[in-house]
Design brief:
Length: about 260
Amino acid sequence: MADERKERFFLDSLRRALGPPPQASRPMEDLFPRKPSAEDQRLLGAVSGRSEREREELLRRLRAAAAPLHLQIEAVVDLAAARATVLRLVAEKSPEWGGEKQLVAWSHKLIESLDLAEPLARQGIPLWMTAPIDPGLAPEAAAEERARQRARIAASFIGITTADFCLAETATVVLRSRPGEPRSVALLPSIHIALVRRGQILADLKELFALLRWDERYRGAGVSNCLSLISGPSKTADIEATMVHGAHGPREMFLLILPD
């Protein structure tokens, strides 16, 4: 009898440690919280109540984290200064492959407000703007348009995107791919220019995921979209532990920070 009690106690202990069997149903609340935790509420409050001095400190931390990553940061005062910076980079930089300069950019209001097309056209430099594929197109026509956009992106030496957020702790730019805003614009061209507002600079990943999960401005898409986290230009040291930039993506990256 004593041995049976010991065996029953041992088996009960195992069952408690293993939890419910795989086929057992669990309340939905256990899987998906309905409201933010105390920590998430603290993070949301820190983001919404951030003072100007705290924003300056975040920018300082961002610059410090970006330096060893070869991520070049320029804080500009307005759209005109951002436009001038982009045009300066176009004039200074040369294509890595081929001799013709081409640019590709997302169809985004912030990028369109830079009015880059006219000054670039005067220099004979094409600017291609990405666009969503028309869902009404026949499959063959849609495939042709997709291939045409892909070819333009691959032929461009500078790709311009916006950024949803930037993380100061790791100098990480956060991009969420949407129709008309393909991730390839940030990956295929040799130079990537990203535009971000100062208010989009967060401290770290904890703040990012608290916003994506609980802030009503971002909850619709949540974290299920394609989320790219980019910390500077492409880099690898696979061969003889020698650092090489541009092996798997852009060899240079510039982050332009605009006022809110």
